[in-house]
Write a structure and sequence with these properties.
Layout: E1 3-11, H1 18-34, E2 39-41, H2 59-74, E3 82-91, E4 94-103, E5 106-112, H3 124-127, E6 138-141, H4 144-150, E7 154-157, E8 161-163, E9 168-171, H5 183-189, E10 194-198, H6 208-218, E11 224-232, E12 240-241, E13 245-248, E14 251-255, E15 264-272, H7 273-282, H8 284-291, E16 298-300, H9 326-345, E17 349-353, H10 358-379, H11 383-393, H12 404-411, E18 412-418, H13 424-437, E19 440-445, H14 447-461, H15 474-479, H16 490-518, E20 525-527, H17 533-538, H18 559-572, H19 577-583, H20 601-605, H21 609-620, H22 626-640, H23 655-670, H24 673-689, H25 725-739
Length: about 775
């Protein structure tokens, strides 16, 4: 037996905080050595933090990385243990994303990343060069102060592996595992038995199984795969979800947490490398391909890593993989992200405009979950979480949080900002939920402020806008201006709704900055937004209303997933009122309530939230324009109209296909191809009309692959010809070819026109759903 003890880790790094990052690296190495491990793997770019972005272009960032590495090398941290440490390196005029392989106070090899992540949330080609020289290792001259400190002038640099006296070890960095031709296959044929993958992988709903299946697939023909990842919010929109793991011969034997408040989490396993050699020797095709392999350069290391046979040694056994359901992911991912953001921002808490609707209630529940996680970690003995909670909550005399509701009372304000258009039902639901969570809750009427704005407008223009329905406007009545308001135009109606929404944003920020002062608390509170990904996609929000906040934990989560989360949270988080909130129809409550009319989001939008999820996935994930989207919907209409419809299932990884099947089945029984075409055109019209709102979207937790977030993820223009004349005409022609029907095509709609382009002015658009 060749016994080998390995350690990999989740680290909660913070971009550009070198003190914090170095501290966590040292802690992980210390814990690995204490556990008896001889290999320690850390995350990609762990010295700097993965999310530095354009800071990688600064020479200081590289210089500080070498300074931190020097501090590790001159101490005893690497004595007797191989450490893989991620940092940027300049070689000549080129900047590389590298793993520095160190042992016994020397650098054995520098392995630059060969295939860079450059899609979705990733822009590595903006900051780094991909290493393309695969045939030989280059000689890299170390910086003078490093060379002097460790008495080493140069180090092998490039693609290769380290040949120890008893095994071979190699790095495979993050994205390289997911490329069509993966380095580990070639390295395995060259005798490498242990693969180290340093990663910076973010959380996305239903994504973890893809990652773990890749680890297992990499070793099914024999091998040990170590995976390390960041965990937490390192300063941006992404939450890195840990799940460091060790896999042997296709089976997971160790797995770290996916969501945790810990800064350092170590995963340790003991393996028998003879099991790897035995499986490879048993596989005939592996033997044949190894005999004619392409040679990969290597570095000889005069050390042994394995322990000899020991009767008392215990090997790590295969384990059941821990997967969270999507509802748990929504609770724990954004909850952990919010805690990191709060403790690192210097804020004293959060303030949330709580409408009693599904979206803001979901955010409130996530903050409540955050408080529960904090109290749980303190009870488990995490001193860092305890210290942060005492500082943020302003605990004195040795007190600390022991109850999540008591903690919420200290760090969480909720505010119901009602008007005469608000219902008693939503006001009551907001109050009940706030009591369940423990937040400091306020009930505020903003009718007087709305009336003041309208009076000012009337003074300036001589006109006063009216809602589009014939109603009694009680505020105006009370002030004695007029006795009744007749039906107004759509422009007036929209303006009146937007006034309410924008007043709520201003009031929320005022309360967040001044309420701590009122309650004799130092610091400030951060305002939380609560618009979901579907509202962003459709633009169903008012520009600069209370969707404009400091951060938004649900901005990339679909309405369908949020409704499932509310049902789950009502039971598992103990907030039973969420069940009633989930059952209520979504409404903005920005128009007057009457006996024969109530405002509903899906009616206002002209489409359902389920339809929006399908449109979003087809637009972003499958990259379909208007014509291709119509074809997709139309084909599914014919393929599935005669079979049992698929039920929407939030646990299905192919959720977009399931939803499209279900959606088009229902369409097929009620809609003609002409009507399907009109639905697709209606979506693209309002998507493009409101695209400008994405330029000022509140920074949101990224959780969904069809997010329309403009600043980092979904890079499309914000000025469109909203009539899509070429594309819509092609759709109409396709409809005519199918059934001969003529679909009326409006060359230009008056709604939202601006010159010849049909683009609404900045700030216009649909009101926000909820407060």
């Amino acid at each position: 037996m060749r016994l080998l003890k390995l350690a990999t880790c989740n680290l909660n790094q913070w971009a550009m905080d070198f003190n914090c990052n170095l501290k966590h690296i040292k802690e992980s190495i210390t814990e690995a050595k204490q556990a008896g491990a001889v290999i320690r793997l850390g995350p990609e770019l762990e010295v700097t933090g993965y999310g530095c972005e354009d800071h990688f272009l600064e020479l200081d960032t590289v210089t500080h990385s070498w300074e931190c590495l020097k501090e590790i090398l001159v101490g005893d941290w690497t004595d007797g243990i191989l450490c893989s440490i991620g940092m940027p390196v300049l070689k000549g005029s080129e900047r590389y994303n590298c793993q520095i392989l160190c042992m016994n106070r020397k650098i054995l090899m520098i392995r630059p990343k060969m295939w860079l992540a450059n899609d979705g949330n990733y822009r590595e080609l903006r900051w780094f060069t991909a290493w393309k020289h695969r045939d030989q290792l280059h000689d890299f001259v170390l910086p003078p102060d490093i060379s002097e400190a460790i008495s080493q002038k140069s180090v092998p640099f490039g693609y290769g592996f380290i040949q120890f006296q008893d095994t071979a070890v190699a790095a495979e960095v993050c994205e390289e595992l997911f490329t069509p031709v993966r380095p580990h296959d070639e390295l395995a044929l060259n005798g490498v038995e242990v693969f180290m993958n340093a990663s910076g992988s973010h959380h996305q709903l239903r994504k973890l199984d893809i990652r773990l299946e890749a680890f297992m697939g990499a070793t099914t023909r024999g091998g040990v795969y170590m995976y390390s990842n960041h965990q937490g919010c390192d300063g941006g929109r992404l939450y890195y979800d840990g799940c460091s793991a060790i896999v042997v011969n296709g089976e997971v034997i160790a797995q770290g947490s996916q969501f945790s408040l810990k800064d350092v989490e170590l995963v340790v396993a003991q393996v028998d490398l003879d099991a790897v050699a035995s499986l490879r020797g048993f596989t005939s095709s592996f033997q044949e391909q190894a005999s004619c392999k392409t040679s990969v350069p290597s570095v000889a290391a005069p050390y042994s890593l394995c322990q000899p046979f020991n009767l008392k040694a215990t090997l790590s056994s295969p384990m059941k993989i821990n997967y969270h359901c999507p509802e748990e992911e929504i609770a724990f991912g954004p909850g952990c992200w919010l805690w990191d953001y709060l403790r690192r921002s210097g804020a004293s808490g959060y303030l949330l405009p709580l409408s009693g609707g599904a979206d803001s209630s979901s955010v409130a529940a996530i903050v409540g979950c955050m408080c529960q996680l904090v109290v749980k970690e303190i009870a488990n003995g995490d001193e860092q979480v305890k210290a942060d909670a005492m500082r943020i909550g302003h605990y004195t005399d040795g007190q600390f949080p022991t109850d999540s509701k008591e903690l919420a009372k200290r760090i969480f304000y909720t505010v119901y900002m009602g008007t005469e258009n608000s219902s008693d039902a939503t006001r009551t639901r907001a109050k009940v939920l706030a009591d369940e969570i423990g937040s400091w809750h306020l009930n505020v009427s903003i009718d007087g402020v709305v009336s003041a704005f309208l009076s000012l407008f009337q003074t300036l223009t001589g006109k006063r806008p009216c809602y589009k329905h014939c109603v009694i406007y009680s505020v105006i009545l009370k002030l004695g201006f007029i006795s009744q308001v007749d039906g107004g135009s759509n422009i007036e109606n929209l303006g009146l709704q937007n006034i309410q929404a924008r007043i709520r944003m201003v009031l929320a920020f005022m309360l967040a900055s001044l309420l701590p002062w009122v309650h004799n608390k130092p610091g400030f509170y951060l305002v939380l937004g609560s618009s979901n990904v579907d509202e962003g996609l459709r633009g169903y929000l008012t520009k600069y209303d209370c969707s404009s906040a400091d951060i938004n934990p649900i901005g990339s989560i679909s309405k369908m997933d949020l409704r499932s989360f509310l049902k789950w949270a009502a039971k598992h988080l103990g907030y039973s009122s969420l069940a009633e909130i989930e059952a209520a129809p979504p409404t903005a409550e920005l128009e007057p309530i009457r006996s024969n009319y109530s405002q509903l989001d899906e009616v206002d939008m002209g489409m359902t939230y389920e339809e929006l999820s399908v449109y979003g996935r087809l637009r972003k994930i499958y990259r379909l324009g208007p014509v291709s989207m119509f074809k997709a919907c139309f084909l599914f209409h014919f393929l599935y109209q005669e079979i049992t419809p698929f039920r929407y299932n939030t646990l299905t990884t192919e959720v977009s296909v399931v939803m499209l099947q279900n959606l088009c089945f229902r369409w097929g029984s009620t809609l003609t191809p002409s009507e399907v075409a009109e639905k697709v055109k209606h979506f693209f019209k309002y998507y493009s009309i409101n695209r400008h709102k994405m330029t000022v979207l509140t920074p949101s937790y990224h959780a969904e692959s069809y997010s329309p977030e403009d600043n980092r993820f979904d890079l499309r223009q914000f000025l469109y010809n909203v009539r899509w004349p070429y594309q819509f005409r092609k759709i109409d022609k396709l409809v005519e070819e199918v059934n001969g029907d003529k679909v009326a095509f409006e060359e230009g709609s008056q709604e939202g026109k601006s010159g010849g382009m049909g683009v609404v002015a900045a700030g216009a658009g649909d009101p926000k759903a909820g407060l």
